[in-house]
Amino acid sequence: MKKGPASLFLMGVVSLLILVGACSSPDELAHPGEYPRSQTLYMGGHVWDAPRNFNPLNSWPVTWPATANSNLLFETLFAFNINSGQLEPLLGREWSLSEDLLVVSLHDRARWNDGRSVTNDDVLYTFHLHRQYPTLFSDVWDHINDMFVLEETGQIVFELCTEDYNPLVVKDALATVPILPGHVYAPLENAARTTVEQQGGRGEDQFAKDVLSKLQSFENLDRPVGSGPYTVIEATESRVGLVRIPTYWGNDVLYEGRQAGPKYIVHPIYESNREYNDALRCGDIDVSSTFSQNIEEMRSDGVGTWFDEEPYYVPGSIPSLVVQHLPEDVLQYRGESLPAGWTKNVLQDRVFRRVVDMAIDREAIRSEAMHSYAPPIHPGYIISHDMPTGNIEGTYFSVDDAHAAASYYYEEDHGRSLAAARRKLREAGYEWSSEENLISPVGDTVYQLRVTCPAGWTDWEDAVEIAVANMQEVGIPAEAVFINEGEYWEALARGDFDFIVKTPQANQVPSLPWSRFESALASSSVVPVGEWASGNEGRYVHSGMDSLLKRIPAISSDEELAEAYEKLNRIFMEEVPLIPLMYRPSVFYQFTTTYWSGFPTHNDGKGISPQNLNVGSAVKGLWELYPTER
Length: 630
Hints:
Elements: E1 3-4, H1 13-21, E2 40-44, E3 78-81, E4 86-89, E5 92-98, E6 101-106, H2 120-132, E7 144-150, E8 156-160, H3 167-176, H4 182-199, H5 204-216, E9 230-235, E10 239-244, H6 249-254, E11 264-268, H7 273-282, E12 287-288, H8 295-300, E13 303-305, E14 315-317, E15 320-323, H9 327-334, E16 342-343, H10 350-359, H11 362-369, H12 399-409, H13 418-427, E17 431-432, E18 438-439, E19 445-446, E20 449-454, H14 458-474, E21 478-483, H15 485-494, E22 499-502, H16 514-521, H17 543-551, H18 558-575, E23 578-580, E24 584-585, E25 590-592, E26 596-597, E27 626-627
Parallel strand pairs: 2-11, 2-12, 16-19, 20-21, 20-22
Antiparallel strand pairs: 1-7, 3-4, 5-6, 6-8, 7-8, 9-10, 10-11, 12-25, 13-25, 14-24, 15-22, 15-23, 17-18, 26-27
Helix pairs in contact: 1-4, 4-5, 10-13, 11-14, 12-18, 17-18
């Protein structure tokens, strides 16, 4: 097996500027002025302020459609379908995994929109950038030992680490890392490295950060080169406009010679969900991913959703109350101390955490905070439901499995029971003083517990208000604390909370449900309170859970995998390391057929992923659209 060399595309910045302006059909890319309505799909919910850049090396701010998991401008190797759970071909034609080698074959007819071929070198160069610099996707290299091209077959090989073997994370990368044109980015990288080297005086880590910063300063606003079916022709404070690439390589390779329905895709820029929703209702927008509190009313005005009745959307995430397992360390970090005889150490008591879990009225959260846009939540941390599509995780742990397991740990089948919750506290040695203060088993008074939430995130705010009221009903001292978004991310990462709302692994990726557990609870992410945590912000440690999280990615047998997930979920239900609040759609998807028809729905038999039509595998839905007869 011979490794082929990976070119780093050494060319001048002058040639880069010429190439960026080139494209396959200048007439198609002329500014369209007022877009013809019968040829234009108006989309909403992805852009909230003036375009900053179309450079995927930026984690934030980067403007749609260059955002992660959007396959309109830049494409990933494969696209994840949350209906089937499969990685579908995109730039990659097929993939296979054999022990520590994950092999990818590219579509040999894939092209950039400037006419150049998408090559193995582009793929290797893209991943080289994420290895060399601290990007959003750098962590994948914790699980990749090397990448190379097989000379015999021309296939790309990901050689996985045997010490930290995790094909799940690498499969996620196949569906989330946008492949970049090396002939555009390599000259930029070379120029950035030269500039930073000339400035001197930097260590290796700082050098990499500074080079990346210069790469991220590339705005890429002028007709960016990508491999996707559309490119940008307008980026103003009021809208982003895309035009279809008539020679898009995927038309012949993936879509039997057909083009996507809309010639243009335009995203107007509004300031609020309400404006987007009003525009959708009026037919000024055709498809949107914004949250609406009254989708049922909008449906009566002709707005469509994935399901034609409640819950309307497919659940994909579990917003939860992260529990701080080191409350004394938080006090030290804040430079505070509690009055003598008071404590927050009850957060370390799994009986106390289970009582909090038992007290919460999840049906109220589902109906009032989530507006019934998700099915009822079931025990454990694996999404299981009875909806006709989108139940991938349920293959590992079904609704019946969840309730059978929960009956061992909970009374009334995980239902809400205030009386049972108070009884369980008393059985564990808790009691209430004459002033109704909660007294811990060691005689200390339980201090007010803060439940932190970002202000303005309305469904989270409503859920927190309900949860806090439920705790107070049981006799647990709790208060809701709403802070601005910047303060929220700081408090979350540094561990400055008692409870805090978070959605571990909010994105739909092949590694679910493993990555939800890993993101929230793996001890490998634990850092001292006050340091910036990239996961497991509650600083929870459990050796049994760690062992399963390490073993699951290497399991290939479906039966063995289901058994391992059952064990993992049982530990979760026994320990209650955090408090699940509700199921939530990962993406809201609604549309109107005033101008366009053919939007994917759950019963159309097309098997398209239930997401907005620029996300992941759902891009295929653009080839199903056609103008509505008027």
